[in-house]
Amino acid sequence: MIRYSANITIMMAAARKASKSILRDFGELEKLQVSIKGQNDFVTMADIKAQEIIHYELSRARENYGFLMEEGNNKSSINDNEFTWIIDPIDGTLNFMNGIPYFGISIALNQKDKLIAGLVYDPVHNDFYWAEEGTGAYLNDQRLRVTNKSTLDKSVIALGIPFLGRGDHKQHIRSQEAVMSKVAGLRRFGAASLDLAYVAAGKVDGFWEYGLSPWDVAAGIILVKEAGGLASGIDNIENPLLTGNIVAGNVNIVKELQNILNS
Ligand code: 2AM
Ligand code: CA
Questions:
Q1: Confidence of residue 131 (pLDDT cuts 50, 70, 90)
Q2: Of 130, 235, 247, 252, which has the maximum CB count within 10 A?
Q3: How far is residue 50's CA from residue 46's CA, in Å, rounded to a whole number?
Q4: Considering the entire predicted model, what is its pTM?
């Protein structure tokens, strides 16, 4: 029987509360009960409501912790407080909006210059992917390990694709073409935090994406590390939490992907 720490228990409770509101809204979107015109506002409200619930629950449980969150302008930096929650209330908003059941609630806890806990909750499947520094990574109460593939040819690699003119599309096409010829398969799921949780769980062998935000990757980074993998910068020196450029997987897969992406 797994013992959940106080922090993990608080994070799970906050995510579960928020998920009630998120799933109610997802049900409306799935049943197409939201007009196309009103969809953006509806989804923005769903994001804000979920974030408010998480913010309320976490501040009630822990005083004087900072918050770095996707919605709104009240973003503190991770250097403002000893402890900072890093939150994405709905990661994979475009999927959520389109009735595609692949999105997550991402909550991480940073202490000074390191991540000490992370949770990615997949509310549709009621799956908690969570990790704590030095304790390992888990899916509900099952211990997780990244896969042990030594080469790319049998690997399934998740990726992010730039959208709406953001990012370098030409460079992405070159990278994707180079990786595509060497792997068993590429997957674009559309929620970076859950993609990283899938790496930790060994559902995919690796993941890369450029230009993400701290709340997309924070929980996933500690999940992958505690599952025995690497979550690094694409150029290997940069900190993916700060730059948003991330490659993850076991050490062999990360090295191979870095070689291709940097050449
Ligand atoms: P979000 O859903 O919280 O915005 C995947 O590429 C990542 O980019 C997701 O984690 C997603 O986080 C973010 N993203 C923002 N806008 C996007 C869009 N239009 N399409 C796909 N991903 C988007
Ligand atoms: Ca996000």
A1: very high
A2: 130
A3: 6
A4: 0.96
User: Does one domain contain both 10 and 125?
Assistant: yes
pLDDT tens by residue, 162-180 = 988 788 899 999 999 999 9
One domain for residues 39 and 131: yes
Spell out the residues 6+ positions from residue 165 whose beta carbon is closer than 8 angstroms to its own: none
At 202-211, the pLDDT tens digits run 999 999 999 9
- 125 with 245, same domain: the answer is no
Same-domain status, 158 and 115: no
With the most atoms of ligand 1 within 8 angstroms of its CB, the residue from 90, 93, 195 to mutate is 93
Taking the CA of 93 as reference, the closest ligand is 1
Same domain, 71 and 115: yes
Taking residues 65-79, what's their average pLDDT? Answer: 83
Domain range for 49: 6-143
Count up the domains in the chain and report the number: 2
CB neighbours (10 Å) of residue 165?
Answer: 6
Atom of ligand 1 nearest to the CA of 215: 3
Cα–Cα distance measured from residue 209 to residue 172, given in angstroms and rounded to the nearest whole number: 9
